[in-house]
Write a structure and sequence with these properties.
Helices cover 51% and strands 6% of the residues. It has 145 residues and is mostly helical. It has a two-stranded antiparallel sheet. The radius of gyration is 18 Å and the shape is globular.
């Protein structure tokens, strides 16, 4: 399984909004500049994230985007599933019911099912707030003279 650029940028977009949540609506151009991501590329990601009711939007002069909920309500898993679809290591696990004709005798199916479980549990255990707190701790003890 490989996370696409769209998935990675969606996570950075959401982290930027979480980091600047107290500033009101944030313009896409500001996020693009801070994250060094093309505004055009972010414009392709926004509808995917917005469709999942993760954002509040405001048009006009003071327009922009903000998180619809607090950063502790968004998991990395939820954000990545918004852009990537199901987070599974093999195609046969993408559907609710495994339609592979070999599923009944497949000796490796349990391996892939277990891996999918570990991946999803891990990504669902990390929130935007977790990432922000970890980053804050990393730099809390650094001193520059």
């Amino acid at each position: 399984m490989k996370i696409s650029t769209k998935g990675r940028y969606a996570l950075r977009l959401m982290l930027d909004l979480a980091e600047h949540k107290d500033e009101g609506y944030i313009a896409l151009k500001d996020i693009a500049q801070r994250q060094n991501i093309s505004k055009k590329y972010l414009e392709q990601i926004i509808p995917l994230v917005n469709k999942s009711n993760m954002l509040r939007t405001n048009r006009g002069f003071q327009g922009g985007y903000m998180l619809a909920h607090s950063p502790d309500k968004y998991t990395v898993g939820d954000i990545l599933r918004t852009t990537e679809g199901k987070l599974v290591p093999v195609a046969c696990l993408e559907d609710e019911e495994n339609m592979c004709p070999r599923a009944a005798e497949c000796m490796t199916l349990d391996v892939w099912t277990g891996l999918a479980k570990v991946i999803n549990e891990y990504l669902d255990s990390i929130t935007l707030q977790t990432i922000l707190d970890t980053q804050k701790q990393k730099f809390a003890n650094e001193y520059y003279i």
